[in-house]
Amino acid sequence: MHILILGAAAGGGFPQWNCACSTCAAFWRGEPGVTARTQSSIAVSADGVQWAVFNASPDLREQIIARKQMHPRPERGLRDSPISSVILTNGDLDHVAGLLSLREKHPLGLYMTGEIANVLDANPVFSALDPAFVVRERIALDAPFEPVSGITVRLFAVPGKVPLYMEGDTVDTQLVGEQTVGAEIMGGGKRAMYIPGCAAVPDDLKARIGGADLLMFDGTLWTDDEMQREGVGQKTGARMGHMSVSGANGTMATFAQTDIARRVLVHLNNTNPLLLPDSAERAGAESARWEVAYDGMEIFV
Length: 301
Description:
By secondary structure, this protein is α/β, with parallel strands linked by helices. Helix content is 17%, strand content 23%. It has a single domain, classed as 4-Layer Sandwich (Metallo-beta-lactamase, Chain A). The model has no long low-confidence stretch (mean pLDDT 96).
């Protein structure tokens, strides 16, 4: 499998356009090694020719331009794209807004759970995707499907919540169902797990991840109160439906004894000190065998 990180940041990207928190300020100052990241998305291929995109970031057009693997090939026609399908892991804006950049009547398979499909169906703006070209496929949890030749995917439930724009007065951040899913991606006898949003890792989920050749996991915040301490928000990571990377119940501790060949943190919030290459937090994550994703990162499994 060939995996390409199209976007490594959480919603808003890095730097966030209106933010001067300590990490964003380091970018605005032009500090060495502090690089911009677009919003969360990956692409997967078995042959390097046809690609399945996981989550359609609002930055998708920019991501396509930046990565030659995503470019049209004139020898195949005036209208062409190597993107043959899109898989959604939730209905958050940073994962669905980019669908509107794919409205130019290009044939695509659009795969998602029934609950995520309901989110799109309820919003008439997504009718811009001509159903004669973009076929919406409702996928049952744990049902295998092939979004691109040579790649098999299973979607599975992980704890999370409904998208921000669907929240009511009471928010359950530990919903387990079709609202938030991970993707088990298989090809060439290898197995990768893509989980860009996750509120907790119960024992059954940890067991499922165990033995993976690659885990790309939610790295939104380093600490739960990070946004509060930076003075840029009142919500904790838990309130947003995300685990923290650090701490006794964080991602690094949770998977410390789990058999995973390679582990990569994706979906990084603009406040996360992991974005700073010389930070103590980056050194701590790397010493625990975690890599920090960046736009254009290529992984061969």
